[in-house]
Amino acid sequence: MDVIFVTGGTIHMVCRNKDKAEEARAxxxxxxxxxxxxVHILDLSETKKVxxxxxxxxxxFKSLNVxxxxxGSIMSQRDVNTEGLEKSFAVNVLGIYxxxxxxxxxxxxxxxxxxxxxxxxxxxxxxLRIGNLQSExxxxxxxxxxxxxxxxxxxxxxxxxxxxxxxxxSVMHPGWVDTPAxxxxxxxxxxxxxxxxxxxxxxxxTVVWLAISEAATTNPTGxxxxxxxxxxxxxxxxxxxxxxxxxxxxxLLLEDLAKTxxxx
Length: 264
Known about the structure:
By secondary structure, the chain is α/β, with parallel strands linked by helices. The protein has helices at 18-32, 47-60, 87-107, 142-163, 180-185, 187-193, 200-212, 244-260; strands spanning 3-7, 10-15, 37-41, 66-69, 114-118, 168-172, 223-226, 229-231. It has one domain (3-260): Rossmann fold, CATH 3.40.50.
């Protein structure tokens, strides 16, 4: 599933694939006995529809406790959506930015609001680049583009945490999980590492902990987590650090881009 909203005991699953979403919903209802599980169909690569969904959600619901951004897209070659945006950027970065920013007023009405974004350890090999957001220049390497987007998610989380201090923001690395996305995007890696990859349940553990545990919010907002612990966003002595100015500029660029697709 791409995005999860929690409002009280109600869970809203925002998914692209209706059949898979309904299957997951049935599993959750069976496992928990909670029938307050709702499916919304949305493709995060369609930027205007992300805006429309967020605005519609705000009209229907009065508050939002937890927002989990889990959408991720790795493309084998550069492709653009109907709005002219590079598709994986639209899903991994701009869609998540629009959803989060748009729903902040609802989150602020909750007593313990949280936003969790699922990133990837691949971002550790990427320095923030704001001059090529659409991957128009250079050879298109889908895995590296994805890793860059995951770095952008970390920076986005840090910046939003500074400006919305009453919401607990976090970003997490689930470890290397045996999923179809990993198998399809990195077949050699998947083949050689298959026996040591995590199950989806193991990968989701820290997300769930960040969403519901009291202990999670005792840590400062805007941090990166792995295995329920705060971890550095850069490797030791890494060249991946960027300036505060560049990091602020990313948010300004996303804000300007988001506004161009906002329904009037």
